Structure formats: structure tokens, C-alpha cells
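Now read these lines:
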Amino acid sequence: MHNNNTGLVLEGGAMRGLFTAGVLDVLMENQIDFPCMAGVSAGAAFGCNYKSRQNGRALRYNLKYCKDPRYCSMRSLIKTGDIYGAEFCYHAIPEQLDVFDAETFNSNPMKFYAVCSDAETGKPFYKLLDKADSECYEWIRASASMPLVSRVVTVGGKKLLDGGMTDSIPLEFMERHCPKNVVVLTQPRDYVKSPASAMWMFKVNLRKYPKMVEAIADRHNMYNKQRELVFAREKEGRAFVICPEQKLPAGRIEHDPAALQKTYDLGREAAEKHLNELKMFIE
């Protein structure tokens, strides 16, 4: 099932993104395609498997490596500056250990945008990824590089961090491409974001990037306004929202395979529950 008018928007949330992976696997199993997709942070890191048609891949490698210190650990943070090991997560896994299907990704006509934050301007940057290669994986790493626990990523002549800091739910961006959109959120409907705690740490850690610090200080306002827009569009019939019914069991950083599996399962359940309504919305 394919509709040229409907886009797909994927929020981030680190390991909460396995909820999104569960949703996407159900969409793949039901041959539901979109002409255009924008993923932020985990939405990009797991969403890329939707373009490469690799059902189950995101869950598989997360379950396999969630306790591996090369994947995510304080050891990695201390040794490399990245809590999620840059080389292991974004090169060893897709290139050797659980190989990413670059050929399918490249031949799939769906436009896939990874949302990053430009650390120098404090503004979002939307990168169209149409060729899976080492640089593509660096753009995805940039999109998912959470401040304080990740290094600034230099790629494409830009200095980048987590896209969620400047455009957490890129619905407005996607509306430039598609009048209707399916939006996958990783927080329940009643969630309201609070201001960032310990802003002094961001100010110290990102002292070279004052515009980025300003964006992080205002992030809760940006995020809450974006959620208001999402639900307003839903009422207008221009957005179809899939989100958890309650707080997900997986935290942003999660080493418990059972919590990861449950988070994924909840995503599948949400997609299956709303599948017929979703098909009607797309049609």
C-alpha cells in the first residue's frame, strides 16, 4: 500500500525507539510504504531499517549487544567520549556484524531524511540520505549523538549533535513534502517535557557552541509546542498518531533485554491495534 500524499515522522528517544521499531516492522509486514520519511536520533538510527526493508534487525542487534561495553557503556564514554561506541555501533555492526542491506536501501525510492542539530547555529539540519555508506552512517550517528554523552560529530563540513535538541518531532518539515503524515511518538499522549536539569553542565560541555546551549535551554518549550501541533493536526485529519499508552519500560539507556523486548512488543501491539484505521487514513 502506497500513497504519494502521506509522509512518516519518527521521534527519537534512544532505546525508547524500539517502540518505533516494533511499529515499523508491522508496517513492513503489511506492505505499507511512504514516499518520504524523517527520523530524529533513534528514529533515524532504527528507521533506516524501514528503507532497507530489514524487518526485525533493530531489535535483533539491540538484544544481542545491549550488555556489550563496546555498544553502550560508561567505559566507552570514558575511553572515547561517546556512551554509544561510535566505531562499534555505526560501523562494525552495519558493515560486519549485522550487515545493513545497502543495496535495498539505495534502490528504495522513498526519501529518507535524518534530522541533526547544527552545533554552531543551534538550528536543525535535514540530511537526505539516499546512499548507504560509511558517510551515511556518520550522519545517522550525528542525528543520535546526545549532548554530554557524545562527541560533536563532524560530517559534511558541519559540526552536529542530536537532532532532537532542535527539532524533536519534524512534522512541520515533513509538511513541506506531504500534506498528511503518520507520526510515531515514543512518549504517551499526556507527556509534558520539563526544562533540562543541570544546564550548567551543558554550558561547560558545549562552551564552544553557545547557540546550541540556547537551543537546549529552550528545548522543552519547542518540544511541547510540537506535540500540540501533532495533536492539532490529528484533530484536523492531517496526522495519524501512534504512541505508547503509558511510559515505556525501556529507558533512554537500557541494558535489560526484557525491557527492550517489551518496548518493541508494545510498538507492535500499537501498530496492530490501529492498522485498519491507519490503512484508511493512508487511502
